[in-house]
Amino acid sequence: MATYLKQTSLAAGKPSSTKVDVPGIVRGVIDDIRSQGDAAVRRYSEKFDKWSPPSFKLSKDDIDAIVSKVPKQTLDDIRVVQQNVRTFALAQRKSINDFELEIRPGVHLGQKNIPISSVGAYIPGGRYPLLASAHMTIVTAKAAGVPRVIACTPPIMGVIPSSTVAAMHYAGADDIYILGGVQAVSAMAVGTETIGKVDFIAGPGNPFVAEAKRQLFGEIGIDLPAGPTEVLIVADEYADPSTVATDLLSQAEHGPDTPAILITTSRALGEQVIKEVDRLLKILPTSAIASVSWSTFGEVIVVNNLDEAYKLADTYASEHVQILTESPREALEKMFHYGALFLGEKTCVSYGDKVIGTNHVLPTKGAARFTGGLWVGKYLKTVTYQEVTSEKESGELGRLCGRAARAENFEGHARSGDVRAMKYMGDKFEWLDGQKNGVHT
């Protein structure tokens, strides 16, 4: 039976009486950009970002000048992180194989994995310049073999985020636009006079960006429906309270609506973590944000044993699940619903967010029950093909198709099979009377 040392307090998270109509605002922006193109893009960029340069697209000279302003250490770190992401993504790509199988003599079935032709990567700005999102979206797309990747990022307080541009450039973006929000996503999705339409959009963003991707899904593909960052830690009595508290707050600083949850087998640990979180919030530079998440969505739950902990953790299907136990790899066998696992004290969610090489675009809001996160396979279309070279097998399949289709009252389908059964097996069909070998007499 679970005991809650701390429960969510949603009173602070109740919506205000002046609720913003996010879907309606987004729908209006998309419709305007669809009908007015670049003029609407510029109007909304001026309105939302106070940004209206002669061209939203950066030239090669622009990029070179911007990258030259980035500290050498930052550029070196970008290269190292991107090589980690690239190495893992290429290994994923290598694991996905084309194949052809002859299931019966002369009956060939095959599978091919074809990269999406064009991808748009959205790299958020807002509260933080998210360099890592460039690594995760663009590098992975290029590892999949996507020939054209364009990338958008907003100005931050009227300034081009130079480190983000460097990350986009080194990641392999073919075109870079300083453009943000719904207007960027819409322009990439529907196309304008100067921004070519893409087939797929990846990358996180604020609720308006997430809603734009949701509304445009179907017209384009998207990586995942996005929600607030989530972290859940499973810990036993061997865990260090300071480490647990620090790791919870490392994610709580993402935004004021981040669930930060501890499930532990030790009441003493749970109580110590609560005290340590309170202490750390007094000295954390981002405590204004993290404290709201912790007070509103933070939970500390004590269970009887680790089996109960894993079972309860699975009900959350959290984006990030960190295992701080004596035997962390046990979770690989006992947990099933998570975006990504982080095993042991030497590993932390921040590594996955920023540097280690796995992708940080992960399912939220329980979506981990049915999907994983962004990976090289999201940028591939797995397609099939078939060929029958044996007359006998084509005739047998024709007979089978005729029977199967008529069981569903699909007479047209059945007749496609009948033609092959007649040609290759000599079968007679009333509807084919007056024909010989499929040709009118």
UniProtKB/TrEMBL annotation:
<comment type="function">
    <text>Catalyzes the sequential NAD-dependent oxidations of L-histidinol to L-histidinaldehyde and then to L-histidine.</text>
</comment>
<dbReference type="InterPro" id="IPR012131">
    <property type="entry name" value="Hstdl_DH"/>
</dbReference>
<keyword id="KW-0560">Oxidoreductase</keyword>
<keyword id="KW-0028">Amino-acid biosynthesis</keyword>
<protein>
    <recommendedName>
        <fullName>Histidinol dehydrogenase</fullName>
        <ecNumber>1.1.1.23</ecNumber>
    </recommendedName>
</protein>
<dbReference type="InterPro" id="IPR022695">
    <property type="entry name" value="Histidinol_DH_monofunct"/>
</dbReference>
<comment type="pathway">
    <text>Amino-acid biosynthesis; L-histidine biosynthesis; L-histidine from 5-phospho-alpha-D-ribose 1-diphosphate: step 9/9.</text>
</comment>
<keyword id="KW-0368">Histidine biosynthesis</keyword>
<keyword id="KW-0520">NAD</keyword>
<dbReference type="InterPro" id="IPR016161">
    <property type="entry name" value="Ald_DH/histidinol_DH"/>
</dbReference>
<dbReference type="InterPro" id="IPR001692">
    <property type="entry name" value="Histidinol_DH_CS"/>
</dbReference>
<comment type="similarity">
    <text>Belongs to the histidinol dehydrogenase family.</text>
</comment>
<keyword id="KW-0862">Zinc</keyword>
<keyword id="KW-0479">Metal-binding</keyword>
<dbReference type="Pfam" id="PF00815">
    <property type="entry name" value="Histidinol_dh"/>
</dbReference>
